[in-house]
């Protein structure tokens, strides 16, 4: 994996998002100076109000506002009376928008005062901002323990008390190892206070969401190599906004740590690091492990800018620059003594949403799990990728084994176990569906608006980069494809090269083995070949809709040569082809 690092960041680039032009362009040049909040005119006040409203909408109901600093950064600093007047104006603007204004930090310098304020809208109980954080790291790094401490507000006893509250299965409690994808939430109100208050040892998600303006959803993933498939599915199928890489201070970077870091880099998920168990680690061992961590983060494969967070000012600077993906904050915490946990909570409170969705886009929802609830019927859970889905909407569910999409009605909607009337892009939700059996639904299916006219595909093309593989990859090789919530084996039909080895790059033509899937241009994929290293795949891929008969014949003939070694991951983008326009030869 260490040899794979340099290739990741050099080749993986985020695909451009669709631009939405504003209907009317507003000139904000008159409200960009450092003194504009001191005594604004009526026209300036209206422009400031509109500007603040836009920034809050872009941030998903919150924004960080700087006082005493011009937007172009050419001038900064206010006198004390000017600063107080500016704060009063900002508070008035926030109150007009039904938002709270909270001081994050204030800086006194020779040129005057400057400050940063969190402006967060007071949302109703059904419309909280949701941020998803995938928790990864090697086994015994303290992932479940930290989540237990954060969400339940009680410190660990050093013998696994906190993590016992999160385990879902008996064997997890017996072994102390997470084997499934768990979800835990941490709620913040409009002024940034934690609202989690466990009753009799358990959390009431509905009460937390009713009191919260922002909810952090932790996706607790398995650290053991045996459960790598589950971890890869959690990183792709649950669409995390950020990744929290956990490292034990005493053990350092061992086992699956590099693998999980490489997977997050490949999927373009911004990562911050939490070093745990600092209370039991000798100082010299901690410093050696931190030096190794910083060296890896600065390496050509990661190209991160590591920042050790020690003060609240460091938290504000890290949070405001974190979305760029280059910055990598490092926290050092103890789940037993509680050291620096307040800094980590402050950082989580300031995280901003990365997925931007427009309400006028056709709805799209990916399914990552299914249930059969007595008295309710079939229930699906997943992530809303685009648009708005409302109660009683009719969507197309599919593809089925024949590649067809079936109209389905949404009977009820729940967010974090709380009934709601609609969900928007970027939000996770569960739907109760009418007149369909659970056996007819599987992970990887989607629910989309009829306006999208969805098409299932058997084949797709993608440009892949082999980061590490012990042998060679050639035609008829088979790999497990992870794309969103899709998880299915695909066979390589052809490649632009005869064979691929570590470091090679090629255009590859894949075909699904079992049934067609719904994939789109621009999607990234992870290819898992056996048990633990990495292929990265990206750039343009093409998909082809194939008749069912052809698919069945191909399934009978396809044979996969399974290489030895460990698992491989990959990323990829897709562009559709029609049947009349087959894939070009490569």
TrEMBL record:
Annotated Gene Ontology cellular component terms: cytoplasm
Keyword Cytoplasm belongs to the record: yes
Primary location: cytoplasm
PROSITE patterns: G_TR_2 (PS51722)
Compositionally biased tracts (Basic residues): 556-565
CDD domains reported in the protein's UniProt record: GTPBP1_like (cd04165), GTPBP_II (cd03694), GTPBP_III (cd03708)
Subcellular location as annotated: Cytoplasm
Domain Tr-type G: 128-358
InterPro entries documented for this protein: EF-Tu_GTPase, EFTu-like_2, GTPBP1-like, P-loop_NTPase, T_Tr_GTP-bd_dom, Transl_B-barrel_sf, Transl_elong_EF1A/Init_IF2_C
Keywords, sorted A to Z: Cytoplasm, GTP-binding, Nucleotide-binding
Signal peptide, first to last residue: none
Keyword Glycoprotein (UniProt): no
Gene Ontology terms, MF aspect: GTP binding; GTPase activity; translation elongation factor activity
Comp. bias (Polar residues): 542-555, 569-586
Disordered, as annotated region: 539-586
Its job: Promotes degradation of target mRNA species. Plays a role in the regulation of circadian mRNA stability. Binds GTP and has GTPase activity.
Protein family: Belongs to the TRAFAC class translation factor GTPase superfamily. Classic translation factor GTPase family. EF-Tu/EF-1A subfamily.
Protein name: GTP-binding protein 1
């Amino acid at each position: 994996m260490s040899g794979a690092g340099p290739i990741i960041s050099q080749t993986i680039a985020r695909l451009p998002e669709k631009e939405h032009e504003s209907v009317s362009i507003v000139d904000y040049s008159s409200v960009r100076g450092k003194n504009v909040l001191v005594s604004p005119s009526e026209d300036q006040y209206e422009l400031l109000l509109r500007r603040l409203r836009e920034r809050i909408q872009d941030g998903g109901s919150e924004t960080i506002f700087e006082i005493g600093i011009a937007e172009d950064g050419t001038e900064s600093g206010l006198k004390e009376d000017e600063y107080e007047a500016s704060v009063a104006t900002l508070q008035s603007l926030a109150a007009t928008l039904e938002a709270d204004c909270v001081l994050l930090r204030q800086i006194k310098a020779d040129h005057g005062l400057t400050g940063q304020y969190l402006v967060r809208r007071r949302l109703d109980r059904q419309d909280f901002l949701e941020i998803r954080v995938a928790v990864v790291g090697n086994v015994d790094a303290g992932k479940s323990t930290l989540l237990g401490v954060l969400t339940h507000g009680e410190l660990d006893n050093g013998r696994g008390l906190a993590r016992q509250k999160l385990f879902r299965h008996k064997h997890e409690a017996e072994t102390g190892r997470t084997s499934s994808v768990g979800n835990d939430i941490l709620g913040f109100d409009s002024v940034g206070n934690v609202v989690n208050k466990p009753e009799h040892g358990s959390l009431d998600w509905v009460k937390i969401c009713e009191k919260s303006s922002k909810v952090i959803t932790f996706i607790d993933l398995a650290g053991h190599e045996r459960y790598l498939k589950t971890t890869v599915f959690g990183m792709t199928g649950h669409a995390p906004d950020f990744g929290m890489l956990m490292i034990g201070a005493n053990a350092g970077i061992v086992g699956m740590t590099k693998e999980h870091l490489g997977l997050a880099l490949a999927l373009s998920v911004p990562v911050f690091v939490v070093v745990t168990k600092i209370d039991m680690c000798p100082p010299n061992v901690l410093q050696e492990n931190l030096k190794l961590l910083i060296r890896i983060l600065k390496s050509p494969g990661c190209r991160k800018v590591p920042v050790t967070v020690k003060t609240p000012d460091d938290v504000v600077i890290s949070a405001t620059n974190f979305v760029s993906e280059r910055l990598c904050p490092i926290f050092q915490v103890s789940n037993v003594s509680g050291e620096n946990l307040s800094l980590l909570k402050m950082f989580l409170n300031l995280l901003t949403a990365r997925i931007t969705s427009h309400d006028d886009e056709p709805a799209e929802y990916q399914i990552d799990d299914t249930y059969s609830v007595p008295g309710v019927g079939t229930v699906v859970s997943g992530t809303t990728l685009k648009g708005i889905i409302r109660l009683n909407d009719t969507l197309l569910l599919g593809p089925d084994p024949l590649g067809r999409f079936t109209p389905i009605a949404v009977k009820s909607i729940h967010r974090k176990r709380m009934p709601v009337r609609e969900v928007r892009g970027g939000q996770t939700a569960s739907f109760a569906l009418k007149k369909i059996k659970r056996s007819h639904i599987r992970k990887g299916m989607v629910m989309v608006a009829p306006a999208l006219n969805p098409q299932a595909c058997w084949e797709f093309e993608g440009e892949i980069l082999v980061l590490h593989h012990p042998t060679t990859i050639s035609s008829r090789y088979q790999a497990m494809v992870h794309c969103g919530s899709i998880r299915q084996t695909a066979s390589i039909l052809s490649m632009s090269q005869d064979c691929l080895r570590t470091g090679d790059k090629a255009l590859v033509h894949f075909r699904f083995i079992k049934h067609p899937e719904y994939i789109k241009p621009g999607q990234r994929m992870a290819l898992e070949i056996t048990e633990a290293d990495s292929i990265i795949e990206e750039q343009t891929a093409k998909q082809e809709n194939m008749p069912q008969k052809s698919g069945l014949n191909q399934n009978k003939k396809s044979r996969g040569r399974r290489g030895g070694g460990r698992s491989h991951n990959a990323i990829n983008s897709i562009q559709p082809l029609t049947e009349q326009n087959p894939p070009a030869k490569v």
